[in-house]
Amino acid sequence: MKDIEIAQQVTPEPITKIAAKAGLTADQIDPYGSTKAKLKLPLPVKETKRKLILVTSINPTPAGEGKSTVTIGLGDALTKIGQSTMIALREPSLGPVMGMKGGATGGGYSQVIPMEDINLHFTGDMHALTAANNTLAALIDNHIQQGNQLDIDQRRIQWKRALDINDRALRHVVVGLGGATSGVPREDGFDITVASELMAILCLSENIADLKRRVNRIVIGYTHDRQPVTVADLKVGGAITLLLKDALRPNLVQTLAHTPALVHGGPFANIAHGCNSVLATQAGLNLADYTVTEAGFGADLGGQKFMDINVPAVGQAPNAVVIVATIRALKMHGGVALKDLETENVEALQAGAANLGHHIKAMQRYGVPVVVAINEFTADTDAEIQAVKDYCAGLGVQAVLADVWGKGGDGATELAQAVVDLCDQPSDFKPLSPVDADLETKIEAIVTKTYGGAKVSYSAKAKRQLKTFAKQGWDHLPVCMAKTQYSLSDNPKLLGAPTGFTINVREFVPKLGAGFIVALTGNVLTMPGLPKHPAALDMDITDDGKISGLF
User: From the CB of residue 333, how many other CB atoms can be counted at a distance below 10 Å?
Assistant: First the structure.
């Protein structure tokens, strides 16, 4: 049975009932229909244990390894064993929904619902971000058209337009054609909305005042004498902020088992920081004893960014880290072709386990306890599962089998108990680099300690940018690495746990509103493209409004 068919068989509880389960009163939410709601700000606070669980993974196969599914199943399992639990997830982007990877609402019997709404327009957050982003772009071009009092150099505008769909044709465009009344011609481009700085700002803001401060700090480009121009200089920070006032509030939904879930923010972890909103995570901590959240892609991307970018903003480090692994991905890292992943191959699995081992050590370096969740697939064999458990035991880490797709929370009660036990263990969180370290030091630490690489190379442009950042006082900000998710290196074809490789930084993008500098490595793109057979080709809707083809 397909994910959407399973979801459509379940009758959601009224969102007011879910809110009550979470300890929210009727006047603390704004319902969006009967199955969705937004929390009102400021967030309510209860006396809770405030245990935070981070779910991350190994480097995935193209289809993903079910990290969201495990997050949801674990949340349901914690509820099943009697723990007060909230789940905090990112919102799906239409890019992967209509493309190849699919939605971000879990799968099988571990899903958040209404999955159709969440995967499509939801409460309008993505549209608000897209509108705000493009309003700022329009205001920049209008300022230049109307006399350019700030002396903005149209060749050095870094603010791009945005669209929440994979559209490779918009990566590089020219705007302002059509004569004197149609603007000043210049080169431009589009990012996917989830990679925009406004998405990062939304996810890291504490309240509307903080949101406005961050929006005003955005560097939109440079003057002809190469001085930065900000949104504050344009005097439009208030206008951009008001377009995001409702999008800032976390969204409340439920799992198939009716566990309360917060779904808010949606940055990709390969080209952005990959974590749901700080407000949603804090809401979970304020309302439940255990909050289960995820970070995008592998521990080398979302996991590292959660620890070094999100933890300071949330104000709390994870009490436990769950690393999701699948037998099929470990075999792929051991050299097995995609078409052969369902055939038992313990030898390849053992070879590929080095990838898992690398991620375990990378997360342990932060001083927090780790458990491995083996996300079960039907083709997995007893010998392969035991091989993973034995490998992890050799590293002093427990590996627990979880059948969350087939059994929901019932398939993860052992994992849930292991997580509860881990949360009671002492931890000593420490970031990867000192806060005051410079950008090159921070990048080198990520490359050598988290990726396992040997060194970093910088393009001529990147070297020039580092000098500029030092002059501007931006050279001690956190760094957000943009890198392929498929490999620890910046080469997506270099699988397993490679060593001795070089990470190539081709360009930096200062995102002062978000509070970090993005380092673009390898060939990673901030506007993906659709595959030859996009998922959109398999989607349909009946005359009575029933949707099919979403997954």
Answer: 27
